[in-house]
Design a protein that fits this description.
InterPro entries: IQ_motif_EF-hand-BS, IQCG. This is Dynein regulatory complex protein 9. Belongs to the DRC9 family. By secondary structure, the protein is an all-alpha fold. The protein has one domain. Helix 1 runs antiparallel to helix 2 and helix 2 runs antiparallel to helix 3.
């Protein structure tokens, strides 16, 4: 029993040390996971000005952490109950050892007294012997009863200890299973993240190419538009100049027509007067001759 109790402590310390290492490894994985989530959120904020993935990840992580915290709490309660049972078992074993030593000392003392009584008087030897044997029988009977009760309690404690060990092992197996599931989930999330990043990169490249093509097309259209606008402006200017020249020519023709009409009118009006003056001059010349 002592060797069994001696081996429980180091195993518990070893398990606690292993649990501490697993806990530190989990903390490191959580740190890396948070870094990846933050980088993904930063990319999402830069691209779409939202952070929905962060809220979703925080919600899922809170639920997972709550479940894991519940499991860890039950495991810690199991550890504490195991330690309490071990301590109680040690106390019971020590108390049993003390009771056994006291009974052995009492039996030895009674044996010594019996021998003294046998030396003092032979008449009382039989009585003392019977009394001593009776007392020894009663003591052995009490000791046997106490031993049986102790064995029964020890068996019960061992059963409870085995049950606690089994519960602890189930908790450890459950935690390992959850750790494996979380690892698989993390790998799946990383794979999806890489696929999404690759798709977004391809979309970005396609958008850049389309943007370049659209920009080139827009520049070509702008150049054609400027050329067409220049042609239209030049055509308008040419038409305006032609219209002005035609108006000027029309005005000139009209003015020339007016001048000709005026001159003809003048000539028509001056025609008879000039003929009369010439005839008068001819008559005067004839008279003088």
């Amino acid at each position: 029993m002592r060797s069994c109790l001696w081996q429980v402590g180091p195993r518990t310390n070893q398990k606690q040390g292993q649990w501490l290492e697993d806990h530190l490894a989990k903390v490191d994985r959580d740190r890396q996971y948070v870094r990846q989530v933050l980088s993904r959120v930063v990319c999402e904020l830069r691209e779409r000005q939202v952070y929905c993935s962060l809220l979703q990840e925080v919600k899922e992580e809170a639920e997972s952490k709550a479940a894991l915290h519940d499991v860890i709490t039950r495991a810690e309660d199991g550890f504490r109950m195991t330690d309490q049972l071990q301590k109680h078992l040690q106390d019971v074993h020590q108390q049993s050892s003390l009771d056994l030593e006291r009974r052995e000392e009492l039996a030895a003392l009674l044996q010594d007294r019996l021998q003294e009584v046998q030396v003092r008087t032979s008449g009382e030897r039989r009585y003392v012997s019977c009394s001593g044997q009776l007392l020894l029988f009663q003591t052995n009977k009490l000791h046997s009863s106490a031993q049986k009760n102790l064995e029964t309690r020890t068996a019960l404690l061992m059963t409870q200890l085995e049950e606690e060990r089994r519960s602890h092992q189930e908790s450890v197996n459950f935690l390992k299973e959850q750790q494996g599931l979380l690892g698989d989930r993390l790998e799946e999330l990383m794979r999806r993240y890489e696929e999404v990043v690759e798709e977004k990169q391809e979309e970005l490249s396609s958008l850049k190419t389309s943007r370049t093509q659209n920009l080139q097309l827009l520049q070509q259209l702008a150049q054609k538009y400027r050329h067409s606008e220049q042609v239209v402006i030049e055509d308008r200017v040419e038409k305006e100049n032609l219209r002005r020249r035609r108006e000027e020519e029309e005005l000139q023709r009209h003015a020339a027509t007016m001048i000709q009409a005026w001159w003809r009118g003048c000539m028509v009006r001056r025609g008879p007067l000039s003929r009369g003056k010439e005839s008068k001059k001819k008559k005067k010349k004839k008279k003088t001759t």
